[in-house]
Amino acid sequence: MKLITESLAYLNEFLEMIYPSNIKCVCCEGELENKIAFNICEYCQSKIEFKPVWSSLYIEREYSQNYTEVLTVTEYNKVIRRLIYKFKYNSQTYIAREMASIMANFLEGENLSFDVIIPVPLFVAKKRKRGFNQAELLAKYLGEHIKVRHDINVLGRIKETETMHMLTKEQRRENVKGVFSVEDPTQIPLKNILLVDDIYTTGATIKECSEVLLNAGASKVTAVAFARS
Ligand SMILES: [Zn+2]
Q1: Ligand 1 centre and the CA of 144: distance in Å?
Q2: Which domains are seen in the chain, by residue range?
Q3: Mean pLDDT on 141-166
């Protein structure tokens, strides 16, 4: 076993020599001279507000009331916008690893435990067009960090929503009503679920997903998003 672990370590070192993961800053693409946290250069790090903020979403249900606690780890600003843009619209999916490791960094300090990580789903056509779901990638890498499995087949999105940034809080809430569906009801009852998304704005999406999961029998839903705007 030790031999395998050692061989893997050598292999990783070897791969690191041919394909160094830390040669450029993932934000500004400036050269990185030394290995640095999250592969984000000191200048870009100084422009990012890394700050964990918890908010609470009230979930009103037929027979009970619940709260979904939401953790966001950075403040949305120009640097974050650029980072997320490169990730989502320029397919620089390696950025997901760094975003997930920042999220994990803050989550690990919270001493919480989860049974499963579930990403906020994209509508099938949108995922096909983009080639990936950003929240799925974040869930995958986050799961590797915090040692919790992720499941992309539990929650589905049955229709496309209007672009939300022009809408008011109430309109956003209306916009996501009935958008999510349970695809695998066997995986939800009594589970302590961590929902993952990239950006948190009014909480309409997280609230709707939480309601669907709680109504399907989840015991608790917590959410984490990379940026709050
Ligand atoms: Zn940079």
Answers
A1: 25
A2: 1-47 (no CATH), 48-228 (3.40.50.2020)
A3: 91
